[in-house]
Amino acid sequence: MTITPTKAVPGGQEVPELSVPEREPRGPRVWVRRAGWAVADSTVVARRYLAHLVYKPDEVIGTLMIPVLAVLLFGFVFGEAMGAAMGVGGEDYRDFLMPGLFALTMAFGIGNTTIAVVTDVGRGVVDRFRTLPMAPSALLVGRGMADVVSAVVDLVVLVGMGLLIGWQWHNGPVAALAALGLLLLLRLAFTWIGIYLGLLVRSPEAAMKFFSLVFPLAMVAETFVPTEVIPGWLAPVAEWNPLSATVLACRELFGNTTVVGESWVAQNALLMAVVWPLVLLAVFVPLALRRYRKLSS
């Protein structure tokens, strides 16, 4: 039984005293507990998104269609001609091509992320989540976690397909896992770009227009041909493309056929493959969270 303190007033009556609520304790333990709750909430949201993929496998298939078709077209139909332009045979060109397609798939994931976020906003899913007692950032962080898990599935499929056409890694499993880690780091950075765009645009149709901007990003890079083959005025753009750094770093780690340029960024591809995604995350994570707070106000 709780006894409420009282005080006497003129007339002999007693009224309860007004109690001042205690301030919420602060300290490392509180922040650790809050971080644990945020991680748990984000995991629940991620499981929700992944459960949708089980019932809608067409999204995964749609994401994989472009790189699978690119393997067939550029690896076998145009592979000999493009390999000849580089001075290598068709088999060596396919060895050169696969890391570029891995990174290309990570970049094309922006489209799915943007459309999924703008659809959730339009259907009121964001509003329903906002009424729940959960961490404010859990919806966005959970979306990012789900996209990275989905990207793992994409890479498994593409690596399997690469092995079927004769591609393989040559520097051992540790270097191969490091290359896959760089690809997932790039996907995480692109996921937050997609989240920000999904909160910014107002319809899936508008999201598709933004997705069309990914094609120049993917083509003006080291994905299909080295920068030495690209026209001189466009070569610096390709060299400083974040996609190029990851592709060059993955080719080096996999031990695949590669043509490394003489520019500083090409000579330091491993470093830039880490720096570029971290810079993108440092820019777009705060932008997405700020946009989400404005959307929720």
Automatic annotation (TrEMBL):
Domain called ABC transmembrane type-2: residue spans: 58-295
An MF annotation (GO) of this entry: ABC-type transporter activity
Entry keyword annotation includes Transmembrane: yes
InterPro entries tied to this protein: ABC2_TM (IPR013525), ABC2_TM_bact-type (IPR047817), ABC_2_transport (IPR000412), Nod_factor_ABC_transporter (IPR051784)
Membrane topology, as annotated: Multi-pass membrane protein
UniProt record, GO biological process: response to antibiotic
Similarity comment: Belongs to the ABC-2 integral membrane protein family.
Name listed for the protein in its UniProt record: Transport permease protein
Source organism per UniProt: Nocardiopsis metallicus
